[in-house]
Amino acid sequence: MYRYDELDQRLVDERVAQFRDQTERFLAGKLSEEEFRSLRLRNGLYIQRFAPMLRIAVPYGLLSSRQLRKLGHIARTYDKGYGHVSTRTNIQFNWPRLEQVPEILAELATVQMHAIQTSGNCIRNTTTDALAGVAADELVDPRPYCELTRQWSTFHPEFNWLPRKFKIAFSASTVDRAATQVHDIGVYIRRNEAGALGYSIYVGGGLGRMPMIAQKIRDFLPELDLFSYLEAILRVYNRLGRRDNIHRARIKVLVKSLGAARFAELVEAEWAMLKDGYLKLLPEDIERVKSRFDQHPYVSEAEANDGSYQRRLEADSRFAGWVKRNTRAHRRPGYLAVFVSLKANGVAPGDVTDAQFDAIADLAERYSFGEVRNTHDQNMVLAEVRKNDVYAVWQRLSELNLATPNIGLLTDLICCPGLDFCALANAGSIGVAQDIFDRFESLDYQHDIGELKIKMSGCMNGCGHHSVGHIGILGVDKHGEEWYQVTLGGSAEHDASLGDRTGPSISRAEIGNAVQKIIEVYLEQREGEDESFLETYRRVGMAPFKERLYGGAEAEAEEEAA
Amino acid sequence: MGSLILDRRIAANDWTTLADDAALPAAGKVIVSLKRWRAEREALAASGLTVGVRIPNTEDVGAVAAELAGLPLIAVEIPKFGDGRAYSQARVLRERHGYRGEIRAQGDVLHDQLFHMSRCGINAFELRADQDPQDCLRAFGDYDLAYQHGADRLGTVWERRRAQRA
Fold first, then answer.
1. Which residue in A239, A251, A274, A281 has the most chain B C-beta atoms within 10 A of its own C-beta, making it the best mutation to test that interface?
2. What is the pLDDT of residues A139-148, one digit of tens each?
């Protein structure tokens, strides 16, 4: 964990007092609905279909056991007994009462948590790799840089009223597990030819109704220049980003209309005037932030792995199957990263009950240095488990219904809250997720299909990242009915690409069938079991999928006007 | 018309904001648009009036800073409280161009924006008519430190950390 110093804590405490005052002024009629809306949004409070929704920031996805227990307590005391992991690795509660929100925030502040800038047209939570710090393919741990960015962006006076929301992600590994190129700013931490640490900067990626892959505007930025360069980008955007049309207001539209080269010129000109000023970091600033992350007392491989793990694997095929699917390598010999699957059958993807929060906290405390990470695929990870302990962790996760062996498989799908909760949605997504789950429940079948990312959003805003799903599903409203547009071939990794639309949208009754047909075509077309869905799609293209989905009927089918 | 807060105190507003087609008064302090100021610069200089200029929030302040450097007042526009362009303008005027006169926010100027505006170098606020000026004064005390450097000279977290170590 990053541990707040007294200054970090004081700012969060002052925010609680400020928001309490704003809420009281609103309830007393001194603040209009519209004005309070923009203020509460900056504190993650939406008014949803049935009740307010409170989004709590989990910077770079990292949570402590103490924080998990607090979330469990909040779920129990102020909500209906559960919370929800979002695709920005935050936690959402769907049923708090408006007048209790200041109290919830005060409780959160006692465990170094807050809801600052989790919504609104400002700089949002910075995200990164869920395996940061433990991945073998990592150059450096990206989380201190995320924390630096959190601090730089928190209450930034100049960038609190941007044209639109603004999201930043960091990745420092060979495999991009942070969907870096679909962010407003994507940062790859790297070394230059001389061996100096710095960043490649990508700008203008994003999902939503105009999905785009980010473009590189600087190949190498020195480590100490992070703040000045971010500030230059944000200033250009604040000045020139469109404000006349909410659907054209993201930075991606500005980058596209100016062209990446021209945008980069403007940023570089601004940066030239900022880079040698007070925004320049000192090495000690970075060191101090790094030093406030807990250092873990790892034990030797012999101590972490006494051989019992291997014996369990050989003796228990269910355990072995789960290990194969739900654990990942750790850079320290003798340790594994263990995924907590929040994608059990019958549960809305990403939901966690109060009892599960508490139990995961206990597991983390006992087996993973008291830490858990939320993933952008809406699961959790106990990232630091000794091999000796993996069997016990599995048993406990199984009791908790958190051990479905489906990480990376078809039923590990990403899904927004959809029409069941969200005021913006056109169509349900949780019900469709359930359909898919029922249809593909056989795990053997799923394993045969292999790595497959299905991502689903209930509306164009794209909270479920459908544009970068291997199979993307987007809910649309058609004459008051729920229909679904399907895309194939999206990816949010280093080879980022946007999915292609299959054709006309598909009805609620048919969408499960459609997914089944797509899978069948893949299984027929793939060249061996090692060729993934994405590889097959890139090789064979849309035609065979289109043929199976629509046959010759497409010409008669109604094309979406919207 | 709303109240004025100047340098964190409720103050009398002795400036008149003139429409482009309004006649010049005989004496006093007037705020005119950048367009009018450019068109009637000599007449304004000869009028004996004290003149401030209101810049559109689409203006690149880098391009006008030299022209406006000697003015006692520059007004920036907040057409809607969610439009943050003036924050960048004020900050660039103060930090890059060293502007020392009054920077005044006009338009949809509300209680909950004052703290950040003042951090960006805006020091005068023509509050929207429904704002309670006394209550608004509290906004400047919402925070007593910040992660970012600001015109209000709150200590930054970085400076304090560096000092702690020294």
1. A239
2. 999 999 999 9
